[in-house]
Write a structure and sequence with these properties.
Blueprint (H helix, E strand, L loop, with lengths): L2 E10 L7 E7 L2 E8 L2 E6 L13 E3 L2 E3 L6 E3 L15 E7 L2 E9 L1
Antiparallel strand pairs: 1-9, 2-3, 3-4, 4-8, 5-6, 6-7, 8-9
């Protein structure tokens, strides 16, 4: 199996309001794009505790909270709080000019 870098344009910076969460599909994956304090974060859109949809949850300062059981995931590290014990997958984001990109690994 080999890995290659994939990159998908998520939109323009102005498309995303400050303190927003946007659900996207990236290469068949459910990704949550968060824009907070002038920084874009991208993470899996499913809670690692019981697969809850994170975009239905709450955006906190530096974290996303799952609405189902209250697990929180740190936007910088992916670290969870109970009841989740597994880190969430994070994706790199890039801003070029006015475009926002999500970077991920593709496996073949």
């Amino acid at each position: 199996m080999s890995l290659t870098r994939g990159r998908v344009r998520a939109g323009r910076v102005e498309d995303f309001a400050q303190d927003s969460m946007t659900a996207l599909k990236v290469d068949g994956r459910e990704v949550l794009l968060v824009y907070q304090n002038g920084v874009f974060y991208a993470l899996e859109d499913r809670c690692t505790h019981d697969n809850g949809i994170l975009h239905d949850g709450e955006l906190l300062d530096g974290a996303v909270k799952c609405e189902r059981h209250g697990a929180k995931f740190d936007l910088e590290t992916g670290r969870p709080t109970m009841p989740a014990v597994k880190k969430i997958r994070l994706y790199q984001t890039e801003v070029e000019g006015d475009a926002v990109y999500i970077v991920y690994q593709q496996s073949f």
